Amino acid sequence: MKMFPKNFLWGGAVAANQCEGAWQENGRGPSNLDMVPYGERRFDVCSGKLKPEKLDENAVFPARIAIDYYHRYKEDIKLFAEMGFKVFRFSISWTRIFPSGSEAEPNEAGLRFYEDVIDECLSYGIEPLVTICHFDVPVHLIETIGAWKSREMIGCYLKLCQVLFQRFKGKVKYWITFNEINMVLHMPYVSSGVNFEPGENIIQTKYQAAHHELIASAKAVMMAHEIDPSFQVGCMLAAGNMYPYSCQPADVWESIVKDRENYLFIDVQSKGYYPSYGLKMFERMGIQLQKEPEDDQILLDGTTDFISLSYYNSSVASGDPKMQATAVGNVFPSIENPYLETSDWGWQIDPLGLRITLNSLYDRYQKPLFIVENGLGAVDQVEEDGMIYDDYRIGYLREHIKAMKDAIEQDGVELIGYTSWGCIDLISASSGEMKKRYGYIYVDKDNDGNGSLKRIRKASFYWYKKVIESNGEIL
Ligand code: BG6
């Protein structure tokens, strides 16, 4: 019996700020990610505690050069095509299109770059999947209006959407409004250009910024459908279920509370309203969202067509405040799970957790799901014969794909595609390292920026090619 649907979208994913580089070329303006340094101050900048202007002069900013995909995208897409990609997920660098964010007219050179990328994909029969905003925010908008703290951002974002929808209709079908929208709670500067003044009510600011993003997303969905009714627009969650530490009811309850922190965003984007538990939470925390009278209707009218997600790990919660969250994961605090192995970066590896997560999302929303990130960040070694034998990565991906199969075949989950993360090595979002590699394609560059940037096919490259060729039958 065939497990994956015939038209299942196999592919890979990248984000502009982690691969493009060329940060000042052809009229591009500076963005928040260009200002995030490598090294020990990184986390403070990411979380909005430290403003980038306060960094010392020799700070190094990995996004500015990254893997130079801006100049090498043809070579890279050719390699994706060689693996048989059906879909390629990439994001738009906002400041290539609107360098400061407030110009009236877009930068034609920026649009032309993405048009070339899209045409290149289409020439190989690869479906482009475009993330409109994968964390990028123009620095000018941070400095002048405080980025997503301000409602004015909605208009700036929609101007970007309109230009993209108009220009790429007929070529792009799948869009994602915001990457990992729940990340605003954890990495507010990286994900939304939000940092904090001393004494600021941080939690109020985060949810207000989130509200602006949710309104922007809903309006973008409506605009997309007006411009081209065949557009499919998705929301995107940094997913991974929260397990109770034990069967003690207090632990089970805490895991529900923690899951809801993330679901809240998708509840709004998929169902069209703030859930009752969310409104009660706002009340308890003293959060007062500033809303316009039309907001509730906008949210209702702008629900997404599909739900996309990243999945790297599950997490564990306890009702006992003395239990410390010591495991490191994708910035979500978690207690260590003694039943799971971890990656080189301490992320807990849990393929069955992917099936659990897919089921939870499908039960809750009953909309098509799209896994747009998943993968293993690991240290790779180029051997004397020039090869990279990344069997550990193959093992990780194989088990996760099996879990997807089970979710589709055994549970009836409607899963439309899988774009594994960092299909070509790129810089890590959390650590800024090159050493943390996810790719099927190795890029010769180290943490200090040394290397020829040469691309090398890893063992996983040949393995994934077979997976795609066999539509997931040969793992
Ligand atoms: C997701 C982000 O949170 O995780 C990506 O959408 C990121 O941008 C990915 O790269 C993996 O995280 P990291 O920190 O290993 O790069």
Commentary on this structure:
This protein is α/β, with parallel strands linked by helices and 475 residues long. The model has no long low-confidence stretch (mean pLDDT 96). It is globular and about 60 Å long. Helix content is 39%, strand content 13%. An 8-stranded parallel β-barrel has the order 1-2-3-4-5-7-11-12, surrounded by 6 helices. It has helices at 16-19, 42-46, 69-83, 94-97, 108-123, 139-145, 152-168, 188-192, 202-227, 249-271, 276-285, 295-301, 351-365, 391-409, 459-469; strands spanning 9-13, 87-91, 127-133, 174-178, 232-239, 242-244, 306-311, 315-317, 341-342, 348-349, 369-373, 415-421, 441-443, 455-457. The longest helix has 26 residues, at 202-227. The protein is built from 15 helices and 14 strands. Helix 14 links the parallel strand 11 and strand 12 (415-421). Helix 3 (69-83) packs parallel to helix 5, helix 7 runs parallel beside helix 9 (202-227) and helix 9 crosses helix 12. The structure holds 6-O-phosphono-beta-D-glucopyranose.
